Amino acid sequence: MAQAALFIGWGTPVRGRERQALQVFGEVIQYYTRLQQEGEIEGFEPVALEPHGGDLGGFLLVRGERDTLARLRSSEEFLRLVNRGLLVVEHFGVVGAFIGEGLNSLFADYQAQTADLT
Q1: pTM score, two decimals?
Q2: Which CATH number fits domain 4-117: 2.30.30.240, 1.10.443.10, 3.30.1490.150, 3.30.70.100?
Q3: Which residues contact 6 (CB under 8 A, 6 or more apart)?
Q4: What is the pLDDT of residues 7-26, one digit of tens each?
């Protein structure tokens, strides 16, 4: 089970680049589908949010092992897709995340540190 994830968030398409935003989204889905089929990632889930007045319009949660995700983040193909995303949507960002056992380990360490510092 995956213990790490990438949270890839975006806002609205850049005005006038709506078609290109859809094209890049399709490329991204193909990329993560291929990575999942090759066993590089455990899975991914694209999410579109209802309009809510904030900057976040949707996100992709990519699940995998921390080392593998770190390697993917520095790959040419990932960086190319990030650059394409930056050109077609507002508020684009990629953030590492803790899930599953990784989240449990993070909170266990946090608890240990709070006990040590009190």
Answers
A1: 0.91
A2: 3.30.70.100
A3: 60, 61, 62, 64, 69, 72, 73, 94, 95, 96, 97
A4: 999 999 999 999 999 999 99
